[in-house]
Amino acid sequence: MVIHEAPSTLEPIDLHRHSLTEQVYDAIRDAIVSKALPPGIRLSEAALAEKFGVSKTPVREALLRLGAVGLVESEASGTRVVTPSRDRIRHAYEVRGGHEFTAARLAAARAGRREVATLQRVAEQSVVSAEAGDALGFREFDARFHRGVAGAASNPLLTQLVENSFSLTWALRRRDVPVTGDSIDCARQHVSIAGAIREHEAQRASMEMLAHIEKVMNMVLDALKDEAQTAV
Asked: What is the pLDDT of residues 199-225, one digit of tens each?
């Protein structure tokens, strides 16, 4: 169904906060994840700008970034929110695996003592959160760990690619497969990867990171399959 106006559930943006484009980007991304902007909806710059109480410029910039990430796509009829797709999720994780494989390898070669200590601490905190059943805490430390590895690679271009691919898998997973598998095992893999980076074992760090991303991908795809079967 084509909808030309943004849903009324969208809230105006706080104009006094930093980086208006970033705020609009976050707001649209969160609305996609929550399905306040449902899959397949056509997005109007003018309607979104009116709902957020901003000009069309930050909305246009945010949509361009969302397009680069992969959460919206351009068609002849306009810009639309991407629809659920098993292939889309698989492709997103495959791209993310390639980027993070390289990030882990470079981090093992380049990370300083402070970065290594931070990665180790964050990885261990992800285990604590997972074992406590704290899903929100685990997600926070999971994101901090992967972004930390990317930052430790000391390659700004790669860091941005990792950020985009992480953001895409995170959003698609939260929207399309809200329940998945064992976060404890994933968190323990964080600790092992952090250890390889600490010991400057580039090959082990990169291979363990790739195996980690592939494990999560398969876990998400299995959950997607189970959810589809339950809906039948």
From this structure: 999 999 999 999 999 999 999 999 887
Q: What is the dihedral of CA 203, 204, 206, 210, to 10 degrees?
A: 130
Q: Which residues lie across from 74 on neighbouring strands?
A: 79
Q: What does 118-140 look like in DSSP terms, one character per residue?
A: HHHHHHHHHHHHHHTT-HHHHHH
Record: fold of 86-231:
Four Helix Bundle (Hemerythrin (Met), subunit A) (1.20.120)
Q: What is the CATH class of 20-81?
A: mainly alpha
Phi and psi, residue 129, nearest 5°: -65, -45
Angle, CA 99 vertex, CA 83 and CA 214 arms, to 5° = 65
CA dist., res. 93 & res. 176, Å (int) = 14
Nearby residues of 225 by Cβ (< 8 Å), 6 or more positions away = 86
DSSP alpha helix (H) spans, the chain: 20-34, 45-52, 56-69, 86-110, 113-131, 135-152, 156-176, 183-198, 202-231
- In this predicted structure, the answer to whether residue 15 has a pLDDT above a threshold of 90 is no
